Amino acid sequence: MNRICQLFKIDYPIVQGGMVWCSGWRLAAAVSNAGGLGLLGAGSMHPDVLREHIRKCKAATNKPFGVNVPLMYPEIESVMNLLVEEGVKIVFTSAGNPKAWTGFLKERGIIVAHVVSSSKFAVKCEEAGVDAIVAEGFEAGGHNGREETTTLCLIPAVRKATSLPLLAAGGIGTGEALLAVQALGAEGAQIGTRFALTKESSAHENFKQLCLNLNEGDTKLLLKKLSPTRLIKGDFMTAVEAAEARGASVEELRELLGRGRAKKGLFEGDMKEGELEIGQIASLFHQIQSVDEVMSEIVTAYNQALKAINN
Known about the structure:
Elements: H1 3-8, E1 14-16, H2 25-33, E2 38-41, H3 47-60, E3 65-70, H4 76-85, E4 90-94, H5 102-107, E5 111-116, H6 119-128, E6 132-136, E7 142-143, H7 151-161, E8 166-169, H8 175-183, E9 188-191, H9 193-196, H10 205-211, E10 219-222, E11 229-232, H11 235-245, H12 250-257, H13 261-267, H14 291-310
Parallel strand pairs: 1-9, 2-3, 3-4, 4-5, 5-6, 6-8, 8-9
Antiparallel strand pairs: 7-11, 10-11
Helix pairs in contact: 2-3, 6-7, 8-14, 11-12
């Protein structure tokens, strides 16, 4: 039996990334109902909004779902207590030290997975007592590892460093890719970009349409002095590139980024002023589909690829 399916009590070893401004209750519930694990993206929600999404998700699915919490979240204590109060059973943590909250969550019977971008941090996860690791390669959208290690190189390195259940992330959106990362030692995949572009995603239609018209090379990893972020080519990315080329300081970059820029782009649909983040794999997809269609396509393609290799 697949350890990821066993741990999360799901049918397929497919976890939906808890992406800011994309992963609301509709998306999470749809992925869980389709046999994967849906995640709410707490990074773009105030505690009261998160509580509302947890309750709506519970009403929309009787299957397991979880919450993704970036550990640099400003109201982290309130959020962790809220997760316990609302009876959340699965928490994925990212962007921070796994030692900080893993003990607190596990003492309260919550399953914890942590996102890493290197085998060094994977070892720290095991020491911290997490239940599973997500190893995310350089191809991923949103915030990324400074090391720029691709998924193809990262998964075998992490697999060698730890015996914990392992999910691969970054550049995975098809059944063939899921099979490939399993061959490298992962037991499942966390998929962000493909789910961000579904009907159920709460991202703005302008953003979805822009992403579905991208070509290879239309995204770039920038803002490494602050928090490495994969940006889509456009006005904001050009401004960031120019600032970085002239050696802008962390303070200047922070000022350029300003407040609420990701919300402006991803959620409000401002394609000029917004910060637009998506994974490299977006260039493979050109139509908006439902979560059911995506899940069915991934599972079918996985089985066909496995059959072709066996033959």
